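Before relying on records like the one below, remember that each one covers exactly one chain. Contacts with other chains, cofactors or solvent are not represented anywhere in the record.
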Amino acid sequence: MNVLLVNPNITMPIAVRTSPPLGIAYIAAISERMGHQVRVLDMQVDDTPLEQLVDEFPPDVIGITANTPQVKAAWAVAEKFKRLHPCPIMIGGPHPTVLPEETLRRSPIDVVARGEGEATWEEFLTVVARTPRHNSAALAEHLVGVKGISFRGPSGEFIHAPDRPPIRDLDSLPFPAYHLFKKEGYTSLQPTLDGGTARSFAMCTSRGCPYRCTYCSQSTFPEKWRARSVESVIAEFRHLIHDLGATEIGIVDDSFNIDRKRVAAICDALIESGLNTVPWLLINGIRSNLADRELLAKMKAAGCKRVAFAPETGNEYILQRINKKHTMKQVREAFANAKAVGMETIGFFMIGLPGDTEETMEETIRFAIELDPDVANFSMTTPFPGTILYNEVLERGRLLMDDWDDYIFLEGKARYELDVPAEVMERKWHEAYRRFYLRPRRILKTLARRSTWQQLPRLASMAAKLAMPYHPAPKRPSNVEVAC
């Protein structure tokens, strides 16, 4: 069959196209392993008209991925494909996993894959292959018994199959099919620090997270943490470097350093095999409470040049409130350890967490300045569907969004009110960027970095959006229901 996989476009305030989407790359690899012809359309970097695409590659089945800011674009793309070239469409990703009925109501998409998608997609392709074309009733009948999906039955009723267990043996998955993507369309993984161009690839060495932070969308997926073997990880490093010419690799695990012995073994193997000459980064951060100096030194020797930590807040009570499971002392030690071994550091901080006041947000800004990472990212806390925070806001706060498009990052708009007014959150968010980055020593450090001049238009745009003085938005309505 002809399999078309689509990553919908999303309009961001700042252009970010760092690497091919990993989820689609895995699904593409599964499809190729089954013997199907596969084409990928990453609409973030590929503007091929859909009419031309279906003429060149008429699909027998389409897969689409979507997070919350992408979901409306995903519905629109599905609508257009159904008009141009009707065929079965499945969607996966965090948003449809949590709200499958919404997607089935609001779009012509046939099936929602909930949770991890590879095994579900493989079974779906088998069903489509034996179903007569344009026979939706037969498709619905054949889908009965497939785990991890939601779809409409013959009478239009919603059918939610039992959840599919998470994949236990991650080594059984093929390497992501990066050869199907237009690599020239992507930047380096972190262009602010590294300039704009690189052959960059994402890698996932483990899945799941044993921690349940209240704001995190990871809580919508299985709690069980599973890891690939050291041998499998090293084999993919070798593939990315030797076969695809990778010049940097970004590890995107949610909990890379949960198993200290495993991390040390991976590092030893990278050094022994000579694969430590290509730098790798920890994109999503690692646990501060598990980042001792000895382990970080080994990671540095193995090629890791940059590590991220997520302090989130500078207040111990707020840390407990969001169930972060680390202390400010542990965060201080983690940053000190990373700097001591010569690693670059990134810090993730959140403004407007549950329980925050103007005083605690001030503590967060001061904590970020004290830690002084190479890059500080300040996020306006966003209650994503399915998270504990989202349910808390629905119960005793109010959402300030009337559209899923409002979930786009870096807009400088508060998404909810719970314990502090929106205008205070927005003011402190702008203030955080201004006070962190407009310190004289920080300005000199930024100007001394070559990537600053390579990315000057992008950085100027970021500065204009993030660090300029805050001007309050008009008062928003007190009762807002998210459009779905």
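The radius of gyration is 23 Å.
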